[in-house]
Amino acid sequence: MVSFFRKIFGSNSEEAVPANLAALKADMHSHVLPGLDDGAETLEKSLGLVEALIGLGYTKLIMTPHIMGDFYKNTPEGIREKLTLLKQAVQEKGWNIQLDCAAEYYLDEWFVRRLEENEPLLTFGGEKKYLLFETSYINEPSFLKAVVFEMLSAGYKPVLAHPERYTYLYSKFDELKTLHEAGVLMQVNLNSLGGYYSDGAKRVAEKLIDAKMVHLVGTDTHSMKHIQFMQKAIASKYFGKLMQLPLINPQL
């Protein structure tokens, strides 16, 4: 394990990586399944990411490829096929980790139509039916609150992926509070704590943690560069604050 951390993080990384990272147990947001979106392109790269996440202490990965009506036209069947492929490869390696899948749905007309037509959507958490969704980073969807109501009415528990990354909400923290009060769970990206995406995303992530509005944390791993940056994220003071919250991750 120490040699793995040295390879990924550097020679002193066994001291820099806190043991309590394993307390999260499950990562519920990543793009590790091969050849489905802007994440891992090949099975070999998927295996490299799985190995790295095991090294960080995770014992379960719930992988969430993008589903976007106009771009990533993934289906539950296609996603499950890639999950089976990766499971077989991991089993052959003899690695001890649980693998599962869901999806990261983009809030567009395609998604609204599928919701209205009661099409089964990929969720995680079993009967809890956690439904991970994202929006445009720049433009607030005019139908956001209406779709949240539809998700809740359909029995889903909506989970807003990386709320700290939506620039249209940077000066509207009260809107995040309103969504939170309406029943939307908030999922922060681990690397936001280290400033990977922007200073603005880091500030909002910290504000969400201070307000105790974070329910889940994900790596949002697309490639090895996300893994390599996590040393900075987990060394931040807000990682400690995050880990003190009653996160859902260990229950998954």
Automatic annotation (TrEMBL):
<dbReference type="GO" id="GO:0004725">
    <property type="term" value="F:protein tyrosine phosphatase activity"/>
</dbReference>
<comment type="similarity">
    <text>Belongs to the metallo-dependent hydrolases superfamily. CpsB/CapC family.</text>
</comment>
<dbReference type="GO" id="GO:0030145">
    <property type="term" value="F:manganese ion binding"/>
</dbReference>
<dbReference type="Pfam" id="PF19567">
    <property type="entry name" value="CpsB_CapC"/>
</dbReference>
<protein>
    <recommendedName>
        <fullName>protein-tyrosine-phosphatase</fullName>
        <ecNumber>3.1.3.48</ecNumber>
    </recommendedName>
</protein>
<dbReference type="InterPro" id="IPR016195">
    <property type="entry name" value="Pol/histidinol_Pase-like"/>
</dbReference>
<dbReference type="InterPro" id="IPR016667">
    <property type="entry name" value="Caps_polysacc_synth_CpsB/CapC"/>
</dbReference>
<keyword id="KW-0378">Hydrolase</keyword>
